[in-house]
Automatic annotation (TrEMBL), chain A:
Matching CDD domains: Sortase_E (cd05830)
Coiled-coil segments: none
Keyword Iron-sulfur: no
Record field: transmembrane: 12-34
Protein name: Class E sortase
Gene3D superfamilies: Sortase
Alphabetical list of NCBIfam families matching this protein: class_E_sortase (NF033747), sortase_fam (TIGR01076)
Keywords: Hydrolase, Membrane, Transmembrane, Transmembrane helix
InterPro entries, per database record: Sortase, Sortase_Class_E, Sortase_dom-sf, Sortase_E
Biased composition range(s): Low complexity: 67-79
UniProt entry tagged with the keyword Transmembrane helix: yes
Active-site positions on this chain: H149, C218
Chain spans, region Disordered: 52-96
Length: 250, 52
């Protein structure tokens, strides 16, 4: 009789552990995506509500709707301080954990769009892409660096290796469209290689200071031993009223 | 274990089945709401940034 009890209890334990593992896999693969999708939608809604509450209206019209070169623009995320020949640019810092922009990457899908939040904490990356605190602001001189999940939490950067030089990375902060162009194939590096988000990243091939963008995610897809990086430069900006930039039109 | 629970549930077979289902749902809810969110960061999928 005791043998019978032992065998039965052991079997029940095995079944329980198996069920737990299946449930956990379902959670990681499926449920985190469901949660992240609704969280990201919520972040984008928040942004669009903010933007519709007049911040766009304060913006001064830009010279001409055609995309102009980055050098001739001084883009400022804060409409209140928007001065074409203002003092050295001191844009309002982004609020930690709050969304401030939406990113579009046509290569990852025509409908691919994700909110960009300030900070790269674990909880922030569950709600969207994370902007490295301490790197340049959107469209500013320096390196605007963003991290995102490769897998789980909506798989935002699942197709990261498909990015190619020339691909557009488009961002909007509600007043301006920023079109960055990718210059490098995905570059694999170690997690400790913080130089990839330097103002002039050493391995990117950029020689002089400019308005750059860096995207980082994990590599391999389900691991964390390495990171994948792409670099881009600011190609064009245009005011939000001018409509979507060329790269997002079909 | 499961036999012990079954024997201690009240009512006839159908009521026991109902209560069992409810128990399973409660367990799944607790797992998804509290246990898995705690366990998930222990997996490597969260490391997407470069840092020291």
């Amino acid at each position: 009789m005791p043998v019978r009890v032992v065998v039965r209890t052991f079997s029940e334990l095995c079944i329980t552990v198996g069920a737990l593992i299946v449930l956990f896999v379902a959670y990681v693969l499926f449920w985190t995506g469901v949660k992240a999708d609704s969280a990201m939608d919520h972040q984008i809604d928040t942004l669009q509500n903010q933007w519709s509450k007049g911040s766009v209206a304060v913006e001064q019209p830009r010279p001409g709707p055609s995309p102009s070169q980055s050098e001739s623009q001084s883009d400022n995320p804060s409409p209140a301080q928007d001065q074409e020949q203002g003092q050295p640019q001191t844009p309002t810092p982004y609020k930690d954990g709050k969304p401030f922009a939406v990113m579009y990457i046509p290569r990852l899908g025509f409908t691919w769009n994700k909110p960009v939040l300030q900070g790269t904490g674990v909880d922030i990356l569950k709600k969207g892409l994370g902007h490295y605190a301490g790197t340049a602001q959107l469209g500013q001189k320096g390196n605007f660096s963003v991290a995102g999940h490769r897998r789980t939490y909506g798989d935002p950067f699942k197709d990261f290796p498909k990015l190619r030089p020339g691909d557009a990375v488009v961002l909007t902060d509600g007043t301006t469209w920023f079109t960055y162009r990718i210059d490098t194939k995905p570059y694999k590096t170690l997690p400790s290689d913080v130089a990839v988000i330097d103002p002039v990243p050493r391995k990117s091939g950029y020689k002089e200071p400019g308005r750059y963008l860096t995207l980082t995610t994990c590599e391999p897809e389900w691991g964390h031993s390495h990171r994948l990086i792409v670099w881009a430069h600011l190609d064009a900006t245009q005011p939000a009223e001018a409509g979507k930039p060329e790269a997002l039109r079909r | 274990m499961y036999g012990w629970i079954w024997r201690h549930l009240p009512g006839n077979t159908w009521i026991r089945v109902l209560i069992s289902l409810l128990l399973v749902l409660v367990v799944v809810y607790v797992l998804f709401q509290y246990v898995f969110p705690w366990a998930e960061p222990l997996l490597p999928f969260n490391d997407v940034t470069v840092n020291n």
